[in-house]
Amino acid sequence: MSAPKHSCGEPMPDSFYRRIVDNDGFGILVTDLAGNIVYANPHLCASTGYALEELIGQNRRIFQSPQTSEATFREMWDTVLAGRTWHGELFNRHKNGELIFARITITTLTEANGEASHYLAVIEELEAPLAFTKVAGSHPASPDNLTGLPNRSSLIANLDELLSTSHASGTGFALLCLDLDRFHAINQKLGSIAADQLLLEIARRISAAVRGNDMVARIGADEFVMVLNGMLDKNACDDMAARVLEQITQPVTIDGHTVEVTGSIGIARYPLDAGNADDLLGAASLAQGAAHSEGGNRYHFFDPELEAKVNAHQDVSNHLRHAIERGELRLHFQPQLSLASGQVVGVEALVRWQHATKGLIPPNAFIPIAEETGLIIAVGEWVLREACHRAKEWQDAGLPRIRMAINLSARHFHFSNLPETVAGILAETSFEAKFLELELTESSLMRDPGKAIRIFDQLKSMGVHISLDDFGTGYSSLAYLSRFAIDRLKIDQSFVRDITTNPVNASIATATIAMAHKLGKVVVAEGVETEAQMNFLRRHDCDEMQGYLFSRPVPADELQQMLKDGRHLDFGEEPVSEPQNTLLLVDDEQYILHSLKRLLRREGYRILTAGGGVEALELLALEPVQVIVSDQRMPGMSGAEFLSKAKELYPETVRISLSGYSDISTVTDAINKGAIWKYITKPWDDEALVQEIRTAFRLAHQRE
Ligand code: C2E
Ligand code: MG
Ligand code: MG
User: Which domain, by its residues, includes 169?
Assistant: First the structure.
């Protein structure tokens, strides 16, 4: 630094300036261009807790705190490096970890030749902004030191005060409890320093989102509380919660990386939901848990039923621990049949819990809880062992050697040494791997596809089969089907349920079958309950089926008996025989069906009749039909609607609408879309109708 001069041009002695900066009421810091401290005045040493010797040679980052946003630093350096003076406010850190909020001026000191030599910072301590008010006496490692927000005890103290003033004035307020979703994983991925910066940014955004007189506190690592003064109105709370969620989900840049977080908010209101601080926090936290378990990135109001649900959940999770040891789990088995032969080719093992007082509990009531609590690994291993053991027993008894399928939860698939466990249990039960099939859902594969492929390879090399369960309910990704060595695909029962009445689901199912076959996979339909569904699936080349039509899941001894008896489905000679001319008549009026049948009896058609659209669609699934004659006005499904569905499901049929003159306007749309070939009015001319139907059959045969 060149020596300064006083007004008359004579340099003042250095000691004079030294005295000024040394005695200044502001902190003064000089660093070289690399940020190494070359001078700090006594005021700065005192206010930061360092001795001068401790500071000289240290980098200025010693004062830096993550509370200052990256954007502030960027702006500061852009200004200084451009040769301008920067003024701004930021947080510094005291030697003991506490925060110091300060107004800072930074300027560049230059040599006589104009080249930068040092940076000079003048630091003036300020009161911290409200949202970052420190809590006196807090431990440096407590959350308060990171964000400067009030901690739990100070929140409770403030809440108590607010409760008494609200009580006195007859007003209310809302308390929002926010927890970041999957913060633990983010923390592990980013490291604690970056995670701290993320938390700070979240704290800043929450503080900015609430109103001036609201309070924000941090009561756990990633848990924040907002107290919204005077806000009781549900819509206002809705708006605020949505605003906070929107703010925190905006991407955060940390060390050049973009991080995205979501959060779950629980809302409780005073005096509506609780009368004291602890209960209010408890209620909000319960609601927050509900928001989280519904998938996160949402908010949930407290509701007294939640408490009951949580208790039931707690009850299940407590008792499930002992259920395995006490031998309260049971396996039921549901047969899987070949749609070509009608024989049982496999069974699916489905777990149940025989509860001492509650009876038989279905898996949906405890498997999700077992997944949450980690008990699923123990449950899954029990199921695997028991299923292999049973299957081996049946084989040893000389029964047909069928496949045994068991369900595997995503958590079990990813978080344990599954291939080893499977190999161990197969060896222990002397059950051959080629008879074992593991059912997985798409979500298990999505979690960590790389790892999933490795596990797949290990299992496949052992000879174990793998099927994709509930296909159609998740991503239904073709990429996954081709990428993973899946042997079979199970079409979810939600598609099968209305396969004969919902053209969209029917198309999805038939397209899935065709696509899976192209990829060399076997297709199993789940939840087949009616003969119509089964015939539809057979006609569309589905390989296997499972469902109540043949059998519900049954206990081991019943299944064993079923195998012993050789129970199967008889499809007859040619399952879906094709008589030449089948006509389907649909009308809700019996006498019309009757007179049509009489009129057409000499034509030699095979005539089917249905009293409505749904029944007609069932018949279409069961029998091949070439020509359909349908009434328009029927209760439930209209004729036009039925014929439109019939067109989508069975485009080769020739469809005739039989309706009164007044119905023309309601069928024009169906006519225009090609769902109806001919429109014949009631009352009809006998001879003309017979002719039209003959032409329709000729047309149908041309289409074949
Ligand atoms: P899932 O693997 O898709 O099993 C098929 C479910 O559909 C079974 O319900 C079965 O009883 C039911 N089902 C079968 N045929 C029909 C039918 O024709 N109509 C209707 N409406 N339902 C039918 P369940 O036994 O209650 O099991 C429900 C789910 O629980 C299973 O769905 C599976 O995801 C899970 N689960 C069952 N056992 C286990 C297990 O041992 N481990 C794991 N991780 N999950 C299991
Ligand atoms: Mg299954
Ligand atoms: Mg399923």
Answer: 134-302
